[in-house]
Amino acid sequence: MSLSAQLQSQRQAKREEKQRRLQERKPRMVLDTRVGAMVFSTTIFRANVQPTSEEDVALLAAPAYAAIDALKLGRMDDEQFIRANEMNITGFALGKRIHQFAANEDTKAMIRPSQEAFEHAAEALAEIGTRKNKLGHYTAKAGELELLGAAYEWLEQLIRVSDKGHVATAIREAKVLVRSKL
Question: With pLDDT > 70 as the criterion, what percentage of the chain qualifies?
Answer without folding.
Answer: 85
